[in-house]
Write a structure and sequence with these properties.
Elements: H1 2-21, E1 25-33, E2 42-50, E3 53-59, E4 70-73, E5 78-81, E6 83-85, H2 97-101, H3 107-123, E7 126-131, H4 138-148, E8 155-158, H5 180-193, E9 198-202, H6 221-233, E10 237-242, H7 245-254, E11 258-261, H8 267-276, E12 279-281, H9 292-297, H10 302-324, E13 328-329, E14 340-341, E15 344-345, H11 346-356, H12 361-366, H13 370-376, E16 393-396, E17 412-415, E18 418-422
Parallel strand pairs: 1-4, 1-5, 6-7, 7-8, 9-10, 10-11, 11-12, 12-13
Antiparallel strand pairs: 1-2, 2-3, 5-16, 14-15, 16-17, 17-18
Helix pairs in contact: 5-6, 6-7, 7-8
The structure holds zinc ion (ZN).
Zinc ion binds near residues 87, 89, 132 and 334.
Length: about 425
């Protein structure tokens, strides 16, 4: 807590100093820039930031630091692109105690809760998130508010409200949702018209609700095809919640962009995804032991815990197989990016699980930087420390491309050239 307060104060102070000095340039000096493509790192580096973007990057001897630049010493630190988390619900409500407590949450309270979660996300080093389904369009309002500079938070790529079929995952019994190609197309267009960059559909059952079995295909091929076609025509991408091999096979044929969770995917469908370039967003952390205390803390009911346990082993196997088959993997947690797990955040624990399941530390790092940027179609702007990219930069006191757990010690966060966290203990 102390650390967080100090870091927030330091961040505010740096921002203030920058403004007072009227300096246009910030220079990060002396750090080691991790080579995100592999190969030798750039040691004793200088990164110049002008406005929101990186204007120069190179060795100290090669880059001249302007006399009036705000200099931030990064010696002893490894610099990487800001982390990204592709499966976040800022307003997440899970069954049990949490759901009871928030049953009468007003729009205003939801907005404030999500704004607070966005600030915490950025503090955790996560500078970009994708939101595959939040409520009441607070996500879209929050995105606009952050971009205007009214609120503090990461870059947001949102799907607006998820499209739910009657009786399926995310539905409540007795309520009518969107069914059939026509209704689903209309619902997809509605989200896109409100500012959604993605459309989210639920093609199989899930863990958190009782709507349909995890391994079953709940939506028809006609329905999936119609949504994907409608979204793509408007330039939006489509994410499918799926634990099912049968449903995923249909979705890959329909040209779906990403498959979320993939709890019970078999080798055959993973090979199909690999060939088609379909993205998998594993959210492995939700079904593994690291998150057991979290589910106890939020008072999850027994049926939920049982369902989670039975899915966990299959989910782990699916992830291992996906890595073996070179499926495109983008990191996502289905928990708040900063949610405490195993002494770190959900985002970092997710990356550690990828290494435990077969990735190299560098591959795990790429799954949260270059790969996520590629999935979002945002490689021009984010995912790498290069001239012209947004200055979304995180620093850690050890090399995460050698040991992914170095991310646990993350102590500096810059987004769009503004420092939001700089822990005093980091010594610079
Ligand atoms: Zn989710």
């Amino acid at each position: 807590m102390m650390c967080k307060t100090v870091s927030a104060l330091m961040g505010a102070l740096l921002l203030l100093l920058t403004q007072l000095a009227g300096a246009q340039v910030t220079a990060l000096v002396g750090g080691t820039v991790v080579n995100i493509d592999g190969g030798p790192a750039l040691e004793d580096a200088v990164i110049l930031v002008e406005g929101e973007r990186i204007s120069a990057i190179g060795s100290r001897g090669d880059i001249e630091v302007p006399a009036d630049a705000t200099v931030i010493d990064q010696s002893g630190h490894w610099l990487i692109p800001g982390l990204m988390n592709m499966h976040v619900h800022l307003g997440l409500i899970l069954p049990g105690k949490m759901a009871y407590e928030l049953a009468n949450e007003t729009d205003a309270n939801l907005a404030l809760r999500m704004a607070a979660a966005a600030r915490e996300t950025l503090q955790a080093g996560v500078t970009t998130i994708r939101l595959p389904g939040d409520s009441r369009h607070v996500d879209l309002a929050l995105d606009r508010s952050i971009r205007k500079g009214e609120s503090i938070g990461p870059r947001i790529f949102s799907a607006g409200e998820a499209l739910v079929i009657t009786g399926g995952h995310g539905s409540e019994s007795g309520k009518v949702y969107a069914d059939g190609p026509d209704e689903l197309v209309k619902a997809a267009r509605l989200q896109v018209s409100l500012g959604a960059k993605w459309v989210k559909i639920m093609i199989s059952g899930g863990i958190a609700t009782d709507g349909g079995a995890i391994a079953e295909a709940l939506m028809t091929p006609e329905e999936i095809n119609a949504v994907v076609d409608a979204a793509h025509r408007f330039g939006a991408k489509v994410a499918a919640h799926s634990g099912s091999s049968i449903a995923t096979t249909v979705a890959v044929d329909a040209g779906i962009d990403s498959v979320e969770h993939g709890y019970t995917l078999d080798r055959k469908v993973l090979q199909k995804m690999s060939k088609a370039g379909t993205w998998l967003v594993p959210t492995i952390v939700v079904s593994q032991p690291a998150t057991a205390p979290f589910f106890e803390r939020i008072g999850s009911p027994q049926w939920y815990l049982d369902r989670r346990d039975s899915v966990g082993k299959l989910h782990w196997m699916a992830l291992k197989t996906a890595i073996e088959e070179n499926v495109n993997i983008a990191l996502g947690t289905d928990q708040l990016p900063n949610e405490p797990n195993d002494g770190t955040t959900a985002t970092v624990r997710e990356a550690e699980y990828y290494v435990e399941a077969g990735m190299t530390p560098l591959e795990a790092l790429r799954s949260a930087t270059t790969e996520t940027a590629r999935m979002l179609g945002a490689e021009e702007d984010i995912g790498r420390l290069e001239v012209g990219k947004y200055a979304d930069i995180v620093a850690v006191p050890a090399d995460p491309s050698q040991n992914i757990s170095a991310l646990r010690e993350l102590n500096f966060v810059m987004k769009g050239g503004v420092v939001y966290r700089h822990d005093a203990a980091s010594g610079s």
